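Attaching the record inline, Q. Sequence:
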Amino acid sequence: MSDLLKRLVSAKGASGNEDEVRQLIIEEITPLTHQVTVDRMGNVIGYKRGSVPGKKVMLCAHMDEVGFIITRIEENGMLKFGTIGSIDARILPSKRIRIGNEGIPGVFGIKAIHLQEPAERETAVKAKQLYIDIGAKTREEAERKVKPGDYAVFDSEMVYFGEGKVKSRALDDRAGCAALIEALKADCPFDLYACFTVQEEVGIRGAKVAAYNIKPDMALIIEGTTCSDVPGIEPQNFSTRMGMGPAISIADLSSYSNKKMVAYLIERAEKASIPYQIKESLTGGNDAGEIQRSRGGVMTSVVSIPCRYIHSPSSVMDLEDFNNTIRLVQEFLKGCEAL
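Structure, as predicted:
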């Protein structure tokens, strides 16, 4: 299981450029499903035939990650870039990245602090102040390695540390993808559509198309979500808490979870002695936002894995939360005829 997670977070897949991670997912789910298709958006959809006719169940996790795109090459060989998805520019200086299909190494640079004016030191870093250094001296030298339009992702490996924790880039939402793949090993009475969507980080684009085509009766979204149980945040402002199990959402800025599905998830968790928590904030959004409003409407709910420092090269997750998310999704599938 951890090997699957490591391979998923190691695959490149910035929004709009998910080819590498998509191919890995196809290889993983082909033995677990009756049919695998890729739609025009690039979503991977694994179909698993059920024994009871009448309903369609959709499981969804997005395969894309935040990243960067090269926009210009300067005369001195430095690269200018745009961000893909929501990234805090304050974390970028000196971080390593990999550019293009060849994974050209680069590092984010900024004017040295001893050259900055006092006013510059007192303001938050903005992406437009940064550049990418690939070790080139001239534009011509840089153009032999990269070009405008190349995608880039953080250069960060998965590391085990502490008490059952992992550090990695792209846990949002490769952890959800890994959980979905594992959940496919459980039986579901109805026709099951396992959807690995694209372009979630830039506007929930893939899920909208997938849900329109599938026309599910219900959908469960598996997401990596903010875990804010860190110094400087008062407990009443925590969103989720690491080590307390998967987080079941009541609502967020993009969707309201179906009350029957929420109650059912809680019931299944308690019956199977699976620790869980209720997500305590209404911030953020995910694929549920578009799936819920697809066609005539879809029953949706969200189960999230708490992840500290998401959208960075060093997101942190508790492996027990990850394992218990898999268990909860499998329990949901086993008895979803109750819905």
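The chain has a mean pLDDT of 93. The domain at 2-65+169-338 is CATH 3.40.630.10 (Aminopeptidase).

More tomorrow.
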